[in-house]
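Entry 14. Structure prediction run on the chain below.
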Amino acid sequence: MALSFGPRRAKYFEIEAPADGHGPLSTADLAHFEKLDLIYRSLCALLFNYVPTSGHPGGSISSGRFVEAILFDSAEYDLADPDRDDADIVSYAAGHKAMGLYALWALRDEIARVAGRGSLLPAGHRQRLRLEDLLGFRRNPITDTPLFRAFGARALDGHPTPATPFVRLSTGASGVGMASSIGLAFGARDYYGAGAPRVHIIEGEGGLTPGRVGEALAAAGTASLGNVLVHLDWNQASIDSEKVCRDGDVPGDYVQWDPRELFYLHDWNVIAVADGFDFQQVVAAQRQALAIGNGQPTAIVYRTVKGWKYGVEGKASHGAGHKLCSEGFYEAVAELTEAGATSLPECGPGDRRCLQSERGDAVREECFWAALEVVRAVIDENRPAVEALSGRLRASRERLYARARRPRADAPRVDAVYAAAAEGAARIPDELRLAAGSSATLRGELGRSLSHLNQASGGALLAAAADLLGSTSLSAVGDGFPPGFWNADTNPSSRLLATGGICEDAMVGILSGISAFGHALGVGSSYGAFLAPLGHIAARLHAIGAQARSAVSGEPYKPIVLVCGHTGLKTGEDGPTHADPQALQLLQQNFPLGTAISLTPWDPQELWPLTAAALAARPAVISTFVTRPSETVLDRAALGLAPAEDAAAGLYVLRRPSGVPDITIVLQESAVTYAFLEEALPLLADASVDALVYYVASAELFDLLPAEERLALFPEERAREAFGVTGFTLPTLYRWIHSQEGLDAALHPYRKGHYLGSGQGEAVLAEAGLEGESQFRAIRAHLDRRAR
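Output returned:
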């Protein structure tokens, strides 16, 4: 019986060479594009040659012609204003094609400059990527070579970041760029509604093989995300293989689909381009994509050859190329030098200065700049192409203005989230206050806090979960908005996203793109044991991108919020696979200061002040660790405990002694803190042990306090004498326990040297020796050792 995939909303097209030899480009336009690509391919060769062993020439070259068509024919943007968020976006999910991105950006800038159309360019050079900036390719910001300094060249990372104009997010880790770029399209479509800016995503077939990509494609197809276009460089070559996918009757080395099948399976329109080097086919395909109009995402699959016309093809050109100033290099750029009637400087085996450690970099830089001046001369000599291509840049801007895109009438107001957070950290809103003696969950109060912010901002939080929206209480984010999952056509006002199912990997990538677009916050939840590790890569790239963007613009970070739900040993029924205490260790203090904040509340009443304080601090990543079971809301005043609002400091004195403390105790995690307060503390009182008790609600919020405040709150002598109890791993106490004696005595789930078993939370705590009576005994034993 033949298999049938059933009907699709998507459509399938094939583009081949026009039978009459004519296509959408005139003969003159075609010649201009051919000249553009010659210069571009030559620039890629130069970049690899003069920055030896750097970059990926093969994929940069094979993708060049279709990206050139995007920049000079199909995309709508304003070269003079890289930050316009109503403009189309080009996002290199294939971050290893950075060489191509930089070469095209510089070439585009040079064309506008030579054309004398100053109005096409930004006023300041920091918003441009100039030919001079290519001297910074794969260079560190501290580079001290003469021309790098003299030209004020920008350091261009090996994979692009938002420090580069027109780049919205950091990519590079396999598959994350696809998910985060799709997130940009979600953010644009949600804010602008129908007619939203398009997101053009550049990728190769090897970049489709990670599982998170399939998850992201499913999310976009399901959501009818019609403003996303993937441009796929199908060249069949990766680092190790020349046949990545199945190709006709030939099985693939890695996967047994071809890219057209993969996209169509996920309900994407597919446009197959037989020859990705034929500009007529490429432009026809892109114009066809813009005309489909059925509301589904579109993938254009171009058949190409990696390293085309470079002299090194296939997998050999993935991350390698010609040796410095070798014969192969000169052959690769021969057509350019003939066009300019000039020669390139020789900087290789014939010039031993390049190999001297003291002067080698400077000499290569001189040769590189001389070669770039040859490129500049060729551009200057080809005025008809320059005029035509700069005219296309002007036409792109005019089309953008004609669009007159405006936010939808009820668009969310993300600034209201930050305003509410800044005003609210010191006071819990009346509607979020809990009565002493009532029952609540940490996850539920986090959900209510996020819902409060969503109501205040008109829906600036978009939430997704690994099939756990209700279980982690993240469904509350959608309260007051249309029920069901967000769909661009049928349910665009919902605040809940379907991100492929049980898919933490793609989910965090998509949410990071939503936040990076800048008009909403992406919020995602899953079991902490899964979300912390699986979301870590996308979260790290989001932090890298946010920091890079802030460095050039000064703007604050745009957070994503990770709800690490069902955290801690009270999730014991699911066993060690789901209740693993290691999750916090993966995120807490594992990012540069200020880029990420982890929250570890113990009391449901702490969720609002901690959430507000974290959002007010504007990190790139906020991770909140919340437990599953209901807890009794304690009467903190009656018990002599500090108010919940004090949690906003990150570390705070939970209980003060009546006099000189007998012991300093540092607590972190809800289950062990309830056990301490309800069981161990009364036993200590009966034994006349008076404790100074700290609670760690957020290590990073504490580290953001001024140094004087940190020292006043937690002096070094406290750290040297402290005894710690955590429901997470021992390394999460290193910040607070500074003596080996204290670390040896500290209580944590792995103290007995094995993963804990399953069962009710109380049983798992007891197995770990973390229930109240065991805590009491361990504290007394520690005091006895100190006395001896």
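The two ends are 82 Å apart (CA to CA).
Filed with the rest of this week's runs.
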